[in-house]
Amino acid sequence: MQFVEEIVVDEFLPTVRSMLAAALRERGLTQSEVAEMLGISQSAVSKYAHGDVTTNDRVVSDERVEALVEELADGLAAGDVTPVRALIEIEILIRELEGGGDLLAQLHEEAVPQLGEHDASFRVHDPENELRTSERVLSSLRRGLRILENASGFTTLIPAVGSNLVACTPGAEDVDDVAGVPGRIFDVKGQTTVPASPEFGVSEHVATVLLAARSRGAEVSAAINVTYDRELLGALEERGHVAAEFDESEDIASSVAAAIDDEPDATVLYQTGGMGIEPLIYVLGSDAESVADDVRSLS
After folding, report:
1. Helix (H) or strand (E) holding 201
2. Are residues 118 and 190 in the same domain?
3. What InterPro entries does the record point to (predicted)?
4. pLDDT digits over 181-215, tens only?
5. 75, 102, 127: which is the final residue of a domain?
């Protein structure tokens, strides 16, 4: 009898630690620094570096594992990601890979073939519980924010009221189910500044736009507001977005809902301003990273 946790301990974690140790060494960190960062001994780092630890080729070649290792190595080396945050990100990925039919589930079934003959799901951890769902949203949002922070020229797109990148849980019903940046994103001396880590329930304005679009069937889970410019609008349309105008001088939720009713495929919403109202564009998408990528292409 072998549990999926044993697959994680025996196959996944040694492989990921080896990949991460190598990636950090490539970024100039010493064995001592890598050991402290990963919470392992220097001798273990040396074994990883010399290939003395058996790794799983399927884990190594998994695109999601590769991408996360590179992202965490960049963040840890730069000091933008703490070891605790890296642990959480890896934990989230483990739970995703334990899903039925995914990598860790496949390795588990191969180790215990009888599981494949059993009618019930052998997923040991439910990745859809509320805590893990919220963590996935925050993780996606943090990645989106890093894209914006590293985007050359994004500050030119930040409106006077500030921008906010938000993302919501799959069953979002109100602003408490939407995560965003407390205090919004601002341009501080030409530098994109995210004043605090994302939290749920801190964005009312952009969250309201996102929720209103979803209430009319829009299949979107993230949004950002940027300054209005006709050329920017055209650039977004060239990228395949469908744009719809709404009137922010009216009730925002009702106006956005009406705009989606008129243009169900809209993924860009905009208003051209009015007395005391700054003109804005709202870009919507499936997740925070894709929204951030769309905006980065404009800067």
Report:
1. none
2. no
3. Aldolase_II/adducin_N_sf, Cro/C1-type_HTH, Lambda_DNA-bd_dom_sf, ThiN
4. 999 999 998 999 999 989 999 999 999 999 999 99
5. 127
